[in-house]
Every structure is written in C-alpha cells, then in structure tokens.
Specification:
Layout: E1 8-13, H1 32-46, E2 54-58, H2 68-88, E3 92-96, H3 115-133, E4 138-142, H4 157-168, E5 173-175
Parallel strand pairs: 1-2, 2-3, 3-4, 4-5
Helix pairs in contact: 1-2, 2-3, 3-4
Length: 180
C-alpha cells in the first residue's frame, strides 16, 4: 500500500512506571480517558487505512531489579498496556528497549548476582502477560541499535530480557532495527 499503515502511539506508557490503568471504566481508573481516546484514534484512523497502530513503551526509568514490588508494579503496567491495546483494537505493543538517559537498566552489576535470571524471567512474564491480555496482539521490539539484536550495546542484560520475551510470548516477535 501507499501511505501510512499505522503509528507508534507514544506517551501512553512512556516508561516502566507509567500506568494506563486496568479498565476503561472511570469509577475504577483515573486514567480511563486513555482508553476512550485511544479507541477513538484507532476507529478514526483505521477508516483511512492506518490500521497497524501500536502502543509504544519506552524503557525510560531506572529499574531496581532487587525489588519484587517494583517488578510486580511494572509487570502490571505492561499487563494494563496490553489490555488497552485489546480494548482499542490496536495491532499490538512495541517495546523500545533502548536504555535512555544514562539508565543502566541492562548493565551487569557485581553486587547483584541473580540479575541475569531475574531479567530473563521478567521478560518472560511480560511476554506471557501480553499474550494473555491481548491474544491477537503483535509484539514489536525496537532495539535502537545498528548492531544485531544480540549486540551488547546496551549491556548484557538486554539480551536476557529479549530471550525472556521469546520464552513468554507465544507468537512471532517483530524486530525493527534502526540503522544510522
């Protein structure tokens, strides 16, 4: 086709700690309007052929891998993003795994020996949550690197996260490599 097939919808969940809420119902979600306006966006733009729209989630925030509470919160945020994608009729979720703002989320640490297994398991949980909450969703991974997906450009643990996504997501994962 000619033209635009879809968009990455930025700033709905612009970071690990941002939550879109778990429902379009205003009585139990203070961010219910995201459901309303995202669905309106999808309904409007799909009439004109832009049907392949994705919630883009950036890994912007520092992550305390030692905190099971933080991991549970972030997992719930990803789960809610998948719910929003399903509700609005989006094509899926795009995860930008680039480490922004000097964030060392993927770097190895000598003080935290289990980081590799925790990061991989966390990726698996996120992949499974997206599959469970939005069975028709596609998942795009944006590694933002000129190297292949197995490059260590962001640190060794982004590969563990990637492998976890592969373990947990039951469909095809699309990878968009950006060359500079």
């Amino acid at each position: 086709s000619v033209g635009v097939d879809g968009f990455y919808l930025n700033y709905l969940m612009d970071g690990l700690i941002n939550n879109v809420g778990g429902s379009p119902n205003s009585s139990d979600n203070t961010r219910w309007y995201l459901y309303k306006y995202t669905k309106q966006f999808q309904d409007l733009y799909s009439k004109y052929g832009a049907t392949d729209n994705f919630i883009k989630i950036a890994i912007r925030n520092p992550m305390d891998w030692t905190s099971s509470t933080m991991r549970a919160t972030v997992l719930q945020n990803f789960t809610n993003a998948a719910k929003l994608a399903r509700y609005a009729g989006l094509k899926g979720v795009a995860i930008d795994i680039e480490s922004y703002s000097g964030n060392d989320i993927w770097q190895a640490t000598t003080t935290f020996a289990d980081k590799k297994s925790i990061v991989r398991n966390f990726g698996k949980q996120i992949g499974a949550a997206i599959t469970s909450e939005c069975p028709t969703c596609r998942l795009i991974v944006l590694p933002e690197t000129t190297y292949n997906v197995y490059s260590y450009i962001w640190g060794p643990h982004h590969i563990d996260f990637w492998h976890g996504l592969l373990d947990g997501y039951s469909k095809i994962i699309y990878v968009k490599l950006i060359s500079i």
